[in-house]
Write the structure tokens for this entry.
Amino acid sequence: MNPVDLAFLPATAQAELIRQRQVSPLELVELYLKRIERLNPTLGAYVAVMADQALAEAKAKTEQVMTTDPADLPPLFGVSVSVKDLNSVAGVPCAYGIKAACDRIASQDDYIVTKLRQAGLVILGKTATSQMGSLPYTEPPGFPPARNPWNLDYTPGGSSGGGASALAAGLCAISQGSDGGGSLRGPAFCCGLVGMKASRGRVSFAPVGERLNGLAINGPLGRTTADAAALLDALSGYELGDPYWLPDPDPSFLAGLSTPPPPLRIGYVTRLDPIGEADAVCRQAVYETVQRVEELGHTAEAVTFPSLEDLIEPFTVVWQCILAEAGIPWVVLEKMNRWLYWRAWRINSGAYLRAVAKLQQIARDIVRFCAPYDVLILPVYTHQTIPVAAWKALKSPQILENVIRWVAPCPPFNASGQPALAIPTGFSPLGLPMGVQLVGRPADEATLFALAHQIETAYPWHHHRPPLAER
């Protein structure tokens, strides 16, 4: 197998080659480090490359493969993964997209990093995020902007944009990210990947506290549904003292893919008031997906989603308060975050608590609306990805308005805690990836994975590669 084909091989397939001793973890790490050295200066995907650590881990795992029964190795053993720069990896800088914090060395691993190590994955480095993870594009001041491998003039999305760019360009086998308002699903949409915002409580935030009242969760970006399912299996699990949690799936999400879903009742949405209709290419992605699921034996009907008018303000209040609470001096923040920071300082604790209560009330309404359907199909964003620096010259209130309109289909399910899975569907007339999100009932990631896998089997997508990454 040539190096490019190997770099783009799905993570689960790479792991199978490792178990068969046809390729070693060390060979894969060396391959990805070479690709990172060549392509990352153009893409801005990684902000810290852990070459020495990755090589040492890969050598140890290569030796372990030779002395271990393949049946005893975890599903992703030896596979190379990237970690978003909002999560701590011991001994490596964790800057949160803040240039002044680049010398801040993490003293311990976040729990999800521990889970990655326990699952046998090899961490290649830290990937770029928007500053504090607050924006749906990845252009923190002082860093090169992360770029979309499909077209370098466009953003890979955010805030998990660096991970999406790295994965789409073949600079890792699989990526970890997080989603507090579309930050996994958006980059998956922009870069032609699978991105899962898991159910609230599925993945622990240990050893730190969870500051966004359940809006955010860590999760996977993968080339295929199976890759995303396997990584979510690895990340999931209760840690002692977690404020909320879910039981482990039985069978695992990966194992569950072997059973096709029964006929499902599916609702689909292309309009979200007061935002309005998604643009033509995003609507077409929904319609094509509806046609596909009907061909696969499911029933689908158009539905009218509850208005988001009452969601926007409390969601913004909670999000901006994290900037004020984080203890980061406002002078090091970029202009948008600085504006949100000062907006938050003008809000008293009572207003914050009322915003939290309002979100909880809205969440009940959303879950109640979704209850009759096994799955909802919606756009991920309301229009295709934007050029790099498209909104840089705008004033902060205008940026906020643009962000709200673009990402509108995502935050409702951060509020409700429901699982939502972004899947690719094809390409826009501009040659940029397109996709939809599948939304499930609370704690029912398994149905989303099963349906996505069924669609993917009938309409494969992971063989598409950005031309830049194949040269």
